[in-house]
Amino acid sequence: MGGEVALEPRSELSEAGFEPSRVERIRTYFDDFVAAGRVAGWLVTLSRGGELVWSARGGERDRERRLEVTDDTIWRLYSMTKPVTAVGALMLYEEGAFDLNDEVSRWIPELAEPRVYLGGPVGAMRTRPAAAPIRVHHLFTHTAGLTYGFQNTNPVDALYRSMGYDETRWVFPEGIDLEGAVADWASAPLLFDPGTAWNYSVSIDVLGRLVEIWSGERLDAFVARRLLEPLGMPDTTWSCRETDRDRLAMLYANWEGQAVAVPDLAEAATKPPTLLTGGGGLLSTAADYERFMAMLVGGGALDGVRYLRERTVALMGSNFLAGGGTLAEMSCDTFSEVGQAGVGYGLGVATMVDPVANRSLVSPGTISWGGAASTYFWVDRAEGLSVALYAQLLPSTSYPWRRALQQLVYSAMLG
Length: 415
What we know:
By secondary structure, the chain is an alpha+beta fold. It is 29% helix and 17% strand. The chain contains 13 helices and 17 strands. The chain has helices spanning 20-35, 82-94, 136-141, 155-162, 178-186, 203-215, 219-231, 263-266, 286-297, 310-316, 327-330, 355-358, 401-411; strands at residues 41-48, 51-62, 67-68, 75-76, 115-119, 126-129, 252-255, 258-261, 283-284, 301-302, 305-306, 343-345, 350-352, 367-370, 376-380, 385-390, 393-394. Strand 15 (376-380) and strand 16 (385-390) form a beta hairpin. The mean pLDDT is 95.
């Protein structure tokens, strides 16, 4: 069942290539935010070569109940779920279940004749036929033309909300499952022709539906059987078990620079969902996600078990954006506080294309992603490095934590 997990480093920081005093700056940096009331609590893990070398935590997982952050605190991953779903789909890819160039309509007929939004409000939209079909790789890469209801940048986003999909409040149509949600999204027009732009969207949720079709199992059952259980991730679930409620962190929102508890939104994590969102539905612990990152650092293998071939992991971290473009050039929205310049997008993850353009110390080929409540991870296989940040503060754009953490980590590396 999990619980009582200690994050114990397996080697000394200096042996792993870090200057200990510089690493400790990470603790000071985040504790300052706790002291100022800007965040309730936080936790960071730092690993090299698939082994934990440092972790630190501060503040409280539930400030109102005066419960401190512990190593086994359960966090809402939100969009850090996406790489997990992508890995599950790629396992099926290696088994020949699909080709990345396959048309999605082969399995989801509702997407056979997509239309593109031209103008007009909800109820009077003007559209045209899409110039190209939606292919599987478009779903992995958010280039299908789909969107999210929370974007609030386009009438198509408003159409999603009118159908009951409002991720800002974690609200979906009552009783809807993944098949029904995909049918709803397919009834809306696309924002652009597939492959021509990038827009953060429900595309990984649609990919999760394809995983169900390809595997013949519900998404949660497949991911648990093929990935979570073999990897040793017992605390990674789609809702918090009753016996683990005390470990679940409270959810907070940034209100004029202060972290304010939002218990109504927090409660959603305790209810088993009918809609299994492969783009944002998982809860996890730092120890569990550490296992997932270690597998990626290991080129798809961990503890003698291979989940993906190394070639597939390399493909996952390749830039799939048309013409080698970046998010700064192709994105329709401002989805993240992490600088988009020099960053491409692969199969379910962002990938660093040009660190100079990004004005950062991150290695080329580093993959990363974060969640709405300020969680974040990256895997730098060139350095054998994996780092994760856990907090529960909405929105993730509240503070520049992600870039700051990268700066502090790479500045602490020796040699």
